[in-house]
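Record 1 of the preview.
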Amino acid sequence: MPTRKKSSPQKAQPKKAAAKKKAKKPSKSGLRSPEFMENLKQFVRTQGKDYLKDQNITSVGIGYKWKDGQPTKELAIQFSVGTKATPEALAMLDTVEIPKSFNINGVEVPTDIIQREFKPDISVVAEPVPSNRKTRLDPIAPGISVANVNVSAGTIGCIVFDQHNGSPYVLSNWHVLHGPDGNIGDEIVQPGPHDDNRVHLNGLGKLVRSHLGAAGDCAIASIENRAFKEEIVDLGVKLEKIGEPNLGDKVIKSGRTTDVTHGIVTRIHTIARIDYGGLVGEQEVGGFEIGPDNDHPASNGEISMGGDSGSAWVFKAPNGKPSKVMAGLHFAGESQGDPNEHAVACYPRSVFEKLEISVTAPEVVEAATGLGYAPKFLGPTVNLPKLSASNRQDAVKLNNTEILNYTHFSLTLSKSRHFAFWVAWNVDGSTLKKLSRKGIDFIFDPRISDDFQVGDELYGGNRLDRGHIARRADLLWGSLPEARRANVDSFFFTNITPQMDNFNQSSQGGIWGRLEDAVFEEADVEDLRLSVFGGPLFHNDDRVFRDVKIPREFFKVIAYVEDGALQAKAFLLTQSLDQLELLDLKQFKVFQVTLSEIEQRGGFTFPTNLRAADTFAEHLESVPEAVAAERQPLTSTDDIVW
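->
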């Protein structure tokens, strides 16, 4: 019997005054109207969700009321419970009454109670028959085994793409790619460790983003050194759109364990309470429910089993074949021993919004012809700076190197300070483009952990700007696709440092943003090409703001060839932030300095030929010692010693 009791603590009942009015019943057309469904959806998310505090109630959603073991056409607020009981037994279960109906915007909507519990579809069982879905495949494809190195095995749902930079990812569940003990940046393997424990041979990529909560159970991982196909195994379709499931929709999925299974949407706008174990424990996850399609029964009666987590449910076309529209992301099934076969999936729209992904690749950017800083860009080789031994230990590594490459620039990143030690970039003045930055967001580099990057949490509600180290305008050269790629790459947080909002606007600070232009104006630069190095200089006593040490000094070194000879100019900007709590900027100044001074302050060394090209060191030797000791800031680019 339904679990009903007179003394419910919930306040979802209509007011007594309203009870005297005759309750409305929605017409059949009204039942399906978007306005009415939206009312039901909001009810589940607000008042209905409160019932999940009762440990016997496992979910609440919208479905058709069941009678005599069969679904009717009467729409209901449907609750699932761990144990059904008579009213007399409710107290022993420490549970509450579920009302017979709710008055929702003047419409009396009945409730329905089913016995059901949920578990993540991740636990796997021994399978004597080998399957290609559980082996290492290259190219990878949706429908095969995948997992975090510390998880057993789940399923690749589909290939998706970053909304901002177009990077391809695999989409699966939080509990497959992240797990209770996981972290962003974790190694992801294909197949999962349960299917092949030789994880050192099966690297797929890194955990990029994840979410567990009302929006769903979802995560994405990068694809590194592996090819991929977008067609789902045994379904033969490449997803092109995402949809919104409705009651009665027919769907199909391709999972690691149960292969191809068919289902029918039986509940929508459902919130389920699921125990993920570990420190994560119970979580309330939003989605919809799928029951078996009796016209296409599963071979073993199971439409989902452990290891299917992360599969993509796909809408069926009118001809019964899989469409190219994603219906949901499978994440859970019935608990062991539950005779009612069912599955639960996340809504695609919520997942895609939360993870900032698209089912199709953005159109913009073709592959750039050049990647990273080019040492031979000027003709003579100008190599990258080398970190001191201690700084090398503090450098973030990707694929066993501390050099992170982007279009037309490279950098090394400090683990402890979360900003770049240095950024190196090339400028081709002969092919510079003017491109808008409109629609391009500052984003984390998905190849490395967010823990090593400083994002927007630092910059809101104060005078700190997100300042490019490698100037955006410097990078927009080459072919148009190449320049577009560089435009996007310049907005990674790895190329950003905090700068005061008038950093490039004061009479002296403005010089900093015009140094490259000044070189073009004052020197006969061969082929209009520059190589530039820049970045913050870290000090132990840098002031802390919002748990981040704010650099107060920056350097820039500009290299070029003039009359066949390599030339180098070095500059230091001192940014005084003594009253950082108020972000009250004392005047900052730009100085011309030697490369040796930058090296001493920065904990790295430039190549020998670049140090030899520093003519300012010769200038200091030629002036009286007292003049050299009295360091004067630059008041305009005319003060630069060429």
